[in-house]
Design brief:
alpha/beta, FAD/NAD(P)-binding domain, 2 domains, 8-stranded mixed sheet, 16% strand, binds ligand NA7
Length: 555
C-alpha cells in the first residue's frame, strides 16, 4: 500500500527543534483543523511519526461533513467499497458496510468507529473553533486562537476542513422576519426536525436539494421546490449487502485499493478506452444504456471522457439523459422545466437520485421555476416570488457552499509579515498543488483549490493521498533537520498556469456551478479542482518529493 513507510519510521517528538518557541501555551508539532475523514487519518499518520498532534474541531464529535450534514436523505454518491480508509487491514476486515451507498448515519458511525478503534479522541478538542492562525517568522511556528480562548502553538498546521464546509446562505430580503423554521441543510439540527404534516419549501436543486426532496416528499403536507437551475441526475441502485456480498467485496480489496490510484477520479472502474465517435452510434447507445442501468455514477466517471471536452459528444450524452428524465415525469410541461438545457451532462456535479423526479408526480409536490418567477423576499409567512406568496411552516436552504476556499477564509490566517490569506484570496486564490501557499510556511492544506479533491475526485481517494504526501513531507523535514517549508512564487505560478491550461480546455470551466466558484457573488471564476486526473496529480506530487521538494523553499 502507498505510504507504507509511515509505519516504520518513528520520530522522537522531543528531538524536534522546538526550543525557539515562546511556549506560553502547549507547544505542539502539528495542529490539524477538522476531525472529519481527512483529519482523523492525518492524526493517525502524524501520531505514527511520534509527533505531538492536536486536532481541533468546532463540532461536538468526529465526522466533519458527515457530522454537520445530517439532513433527511443525506448519503454518499460514491459506493462504500471506495468511500473508506485503506491504511488498516484490520479495519477493512472489521467494518461491515450495510449498503452500496451508505447514508449519513452509517458513514458517521464508521468515522466514530475509526476514532474509537485507533484511540484518536484523546487528541481531539471538540466544541472548539479555530478563529485565527498567525505565523511567527522568528520562532518558526504558528499561534492558533480559538473561540474558547484556548491558544495553541505549533510548528505545522494541516487544514482538514473539507471542500464543502462553509454553508452558503443567500441574502434573501426578509430572512429574519420568517416566523416558521428556517434551516440550512449543512446546519441541520442534530436532534432532528419533525416535518410530518408541515408545509415545507426547499430552495436549491443540487445534490443536496435532490436528496432532501425525494426523502421528505412522502411525509410532508406540501412541498414547494424552488428551482433556479434544473439538474441532471442518475437513478441510484442501492442494494443492501449481506455477508456473501461483503466477502466478495473484501476479496476484491487488493485490486480496489490499487485501482483507485490509477483512476482519473479516484474511483475503481476504468472509463471507455475507445474515442466516442470511433464507436458506432448504436453501440454508443448500448454502452450508455449499460452504464445508466448500473445505478451509479459510471455514465459520468467511467464513461466517455469526451463529455468533458467535446460539445458534440456532450450533447449526445446529455440528450440521452434528458430522454430518461422526461420519461419519469407525467406532466410534459413540468418535465421540460426539470430538464437542464443550458449545460452538458457531467459539466456540473452529477447527483444520484432515488425517486426525485417521481416526487413531482405526487399531488403534494409543486415546482416553482425561479427563472420565470424569482424570489422577491422571505416574508413572516413564507416566500414571496414575483407570482405571489407561498405560505410555509419550514424553509430548507439547500443552497450549497462557498466551496474550496470558504473554510479557509473563515479563519483569520496571517502568514509571513502578517499578510492575511482572506485578503490575498479576495485578489486571487493561489495554491501550489492545493497543498501549500506561498507566504504561509508550514501551512498544509487539504481539499484546497487546484488539487483534484476540491471537487473532481472520489474524496477519500484523493484526501488519503494528500495526507500521505503531507506526512512524508513533515517526516522529511525532521530527518533533514529542517524546520520550514514553503512553495516558491515561481513554482506556484507554474502550477497555476498548468492548472489553467488544462481547465480552460474543458466544458466544466465554461459551466456555472460551485466547481468554478460562480455560485458565490464576487468570487473569482476559476475551476477549483485540478482536472488533470488523480494519477497525473499524484505523479506531480511524487516528483516534487523525489526531487527533495523542488519548487519549495526548505529551511
Ligand atoms: P449546490 O450543488 O451548489 O446546489 C445549490 C443549489 O441551490 C442550486 O440548485 C442553486 O441554484 C441553488 N441556489 C443557490 N443560491 C440560490 C439563490 N440565491 N436562489 C435560488 N437558488 C439558489 O450545493 P449542494 O449542497 O446541493 O451540493 C454541494 C455538493 O455537496 C455536491 O455537489 C456534492 O458534492 C455534495 P443554481 O444552480 O446556482 O442556479
Amino acid at each position: 500500500m502507498r505510504g507504507a513507510s509511515l509505519g516504520v519510521t518513528l520520530i522522537n517528538a522531543l528531538e524536534l527543534p522546538l526550543d525557539n518557541l515562546t511556549a506560553h501555551t502547549q507547544p505542539l508539532d502539528a495542529v490539524i483543523i477538522g476531525a472529519g475523514f481527512t483529519g482523523l487519518y492525518q492524526l493517525w499518520s502524524l501520531r505514527k511519526l511520534g509527533l505531538r498532534v492536536q486536532v481541533v474541531d468546532a463540532a461536538s464529535n468526529v465526522g466533519g461533513t458527515w457530522y454537520w450534514n445530517c439532513y433527511p436523505g443525506a448519503r454518499t454518491d460514491s459506493p462504500s467499497h471506495i468511500y473508506q480508509y485503506w491504511f488498516s487491514d484490520e479495519l477493512l476486515d472489521e467494518w461491515d458496510w450495510q449498503q452500496r451507498y451508505p447514508d449519513q448515519a452509517e458513514t458517521e458511525r464508521y468515522l466514530n468507529y475509526v476514532a474509537d478503534r485507533f484511540d484518536l479522541r484523546k487528541d481531539i478538542r471538540f466544541n472548539t473553533r479555530v478563529d485565527g492562525a498567525t505565523w511567527d517568522d522568528s520562532a518558526h511556528c504558528w499561534t492558533l486562537t480559538t473561540n474558547t480562548g484556548e491558544t495553541f502553538q505549533s510548528r505545522f498546521i494541516v487544514t482538514a476542513l473539507g471542500p464543502l464546509s462553509a454553508p452558503l446562505v443567500p441574502p434573501f430580503k426578509g430572512h429574519e422576519t420568517f416566523t416558521g423554521r428556517l434551516v440550512h441543510t449543512a446546519r441541520w439540527p442534530r436532534e432532528g426536525l419533525d416535518l410530518k404534516g408541515k408545509r415545507v419549501g426547499v430552495i436549491g436543486t443540487g445534490a443536496t436539494g435532490i436528496q432532501v426532496v425525494q426523502t421528505i416528499a412522502p411525509e410532508v403536507a406540501s412541498l414547494t421546490v424552488f428551482q433556479r437551475s434544473p439538474n441532471y441526475a442518475v437513478p441510484m441502485g442501492n442494494p443492501r449487502y449481506n455477508d456473501a456480498d461483503r466477502a466478495a467485496m473484501r476479496a476484491r480489496y487488493p485490486h480496489t485499493r490499487e485501482a483507485i490510484w490509477t483512476n482519473f477520479v479516484g474511483f475503481d472502474q476504468p472509463g471507455q478506452t475507445r474515442a466516442f465517435f470511433d464507436v458506432p452510434p448504436a453501440e454508443r447507445r448500448e454502452i450508455m444504456e449499460t452504464l445508466w442501468a448500473d445505478g451509479s455514477l459510471k455514465l459520468w466517471v467511467s464513461g466517455f471522457m469526451e463529455i468533458f471536452f467535446d460539445p458534440a459528444a456532450s450533447e449526445e450524452v446529455s440528450a440521452f439523459v434528458r430522454e430518461k428524465i422526461r420519461a419519469r415525469i407525467n406532466d410534459p410541461i413540468l418535465a421540460e422545466k426539470l430538464i437542464p438545457q443550458d449545460h452538458g451532462f457531467g459539466t456540473k456535479r452529477v447527483p444520484l437520485e432515488n425517486g426525485y423526479f417521481d416526487a413531482f408526480n405526487q399531488p403534494n409536490v409543486e415546482l416553482v421555476d425561479l427563472r420565470a418567477t424569482p424570489i422577491e423576499c422571505i416574508t413572516p409567512n413564507g416566500i414571496r416570488t414575483t407570482a405571489g406568496e407561498i405560505a410555509l411552516d419550514v424553509i430548507i436552504l439547500a443552497t450549497g457552499f462557498d466551496a474550496g476556499t470558504g473554510g479557509l477564509t473563515a479563519i483569520d490566517i496571517r502568514g509571513r509579515n502578517g499578510v492575511s490569506l482572506r485578503e490575498e484570496w479576495k485578489k486571487e486564490v493561489r495554491t501550489t498543488m492545493g497543498l501549500q501557499i506561498h507566504g504561509y510556511p508550514n501551512l498544509f492544506t487539504t481539499s484546497a483549490p487546484y488539487a483534484p479533491i476540491a471537487a473532481f475526485c472520489n474524496a477519500p481517494s484523493c484526501l488519503q493521498h494528500q495526507v500521505q504526501w503531507i506526512t512524508e513531507c513533515i517526516e522529511y523535514l525532521h530527518t533533514h533537520g529542517r524546520t520550514t517549508i514553503e512553495p516558491t512564487p515561481d513554482a506556484e505560478q507554474r502550477w497555476l498556469a498548468h492548472h489553467d491550461e488544462l481547465a480552460n480546455q474543458t466544458l466544466i470551466a465554461k459551466t456555472k456551478s460551485w466547481y468554478t466558484g460562480s455560485n458565490i457573488e464576487g468570487k473569482q471564476n476559476r475551476l477549483l479542482s485540478y482536472i488533470g486526473g488523480l494519477p497525473a496529480y499524484m505523479a506531480a506530487c511524487a516528483e516534487v518529493k523525489q526531487q527533495d521538494y523542488a519548487g519549495f523553499e526548505v529551511v
